[in-house]
């Protein structure tokens, strides 16, 4: 009996430690805001009253899709470095190192926390306590790292979330009713104004995030590399405008969204060093 209680206690602690409260708050805000938009005298409500259910249904499905993508990105493996072995076409890490001229490529470093050998562009996350391949940043919104495996889905999520938020903004504005006095106006529109405030703030945040990430994707750079360039061994000796992973906007975007395999960045770095533009 005592063992069962201890197991349940550990499960509860794990849920809270892995972002349960953040995800629950995000989900609650999403559905409360959606409910307000459906219940007030907005365009959605008017469409329902006229029996035109297509737009309300599409909006509802878009919200559901945004929530599903949110949980997918927040619970997905961002690209944890599990062992010293780099699996894939290149075989073991030792084989890969022997294929790369060490004179032109910085040696792989060993993480001081995980004690694992870090592939190029990987970084240890102090919050997740793991090393992440092609580390971008740890996002407190999803309570997960954004890395090689979930970065593209993070951007897809931001795009879908932005569409839902802009549509919600339009719906909320359509429901604002006039009032004889300011007090009456606030009383009539209070919940709708609160929803409008939440949607407006989230819209600005998502626009900034999406814009920054699309720019970084277009130059094949991560947030960590952009912010800490002077401290990263494989970048600090490059010129200010030089990026060894940049192959042009079109190729960068294509590789980011369409290449799903693990990339051996050491080889990309070596090829760029051997064939400078």
Automatic annotation (TrEMBL):
Entry membrane topology: Multi-pass membrane protein
Catalyzed reactions: L-cysteinyl-[protein] + hexadecanoyl-CoA = S-hexadecanoyl-L-cysteinyl-[protein] + CoA
Keyword Membrane: yes
Assigned GO CC terms: endoplasmic reticulum; Golgi apparatus
Entry EC no(s): 2.3.1.225
Keyword Acyltransferase appears in the UniProt entry: yes
Subcellular locations according to the entry: Endomembrane system
Domain named Palmitoyltransferase DHHC: residues: 108-228
Enzyme class per UniProt: transferase
Keyword vocabulary terms for this entry: Acyltransferase, Lipoprotein, Membrane, Palmitate, Transferase, Transmembrane, Transmembrane helix
Segments crossing the lipid bilayer: 20-41, 53-73, 154-173, 193-217
Sample GO molecular function, one term: protein-cysteine S-palmitoyltransferase activity
GO biological process, one term: protein targeting to membrane
Family: Belongs to the DHHC palmitoyltransferase family.
Domain remark from Swiss-Prot or TrEMBL: The DHHC domain is required for palmitoyltransferase activity.
Name this protein carries in UniProt: Palmitoyltransferase
Organism: Seriola lalandi dorsalis
Lineage: Eukaryota, Metazoa, Chordata, Craniata, Vertebrata
């Amino acid at each position: 009996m005592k063992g069962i209680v201890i197991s349940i206690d550990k499960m509860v602690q794990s849920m809270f430690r892995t972002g349960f409260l953040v995800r629950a708050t995000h989900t609650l805000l999403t559905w409360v805001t959606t409910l307000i938009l459906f219940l007030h005298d907005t365009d959605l409500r008017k469409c329902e009253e006229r029996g035109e259910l297509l737009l309300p249904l599409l909006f509802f499905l878009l919200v559901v899709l945004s929530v599903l993508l949110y949980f997918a990105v927040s619970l997905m493996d961002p690209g944890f470095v599990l062992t010293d072995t780099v699996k894939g076409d290149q075989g073991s890490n030792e084989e890969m190192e022997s294929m790369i001229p060490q004179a032109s490529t910085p040696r792989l470093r060993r993480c001081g926390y995980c004690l694992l050998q870090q592939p190029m562009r990987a970084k240890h996350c102090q919050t997740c306590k793991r090393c992440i391949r092609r580390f971008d940043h740890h996002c407190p919104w999803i309570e997960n790292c954004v890395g090689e495996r979930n970065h593209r889905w993070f951007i897809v999520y931001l795009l879908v979330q932005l569409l839902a938020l802009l549509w919600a903004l339009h719906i909320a504005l359509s429901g604002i009713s006039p009032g004889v006095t300011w007090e009456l106006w606030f009383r009539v529109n209070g919940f709708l104004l609160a929803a409008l405030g939440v949607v407006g703030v989230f819209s600005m945040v998502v626009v900034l995030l999406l814009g920054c990430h699309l720019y970084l994707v277009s130059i094949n750079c991560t947030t960590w590399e952009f912010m800490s360039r002077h401290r990263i061994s494989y970048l600090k000796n490059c010129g200010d405008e030089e990026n060894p992973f940049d192959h042009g906007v079109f190729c960068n975007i294509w590789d980011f969204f369409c290449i799903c395999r693990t990339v051996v960045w050491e080889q990309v770095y070596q090829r760029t060093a051997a064939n400078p533009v």
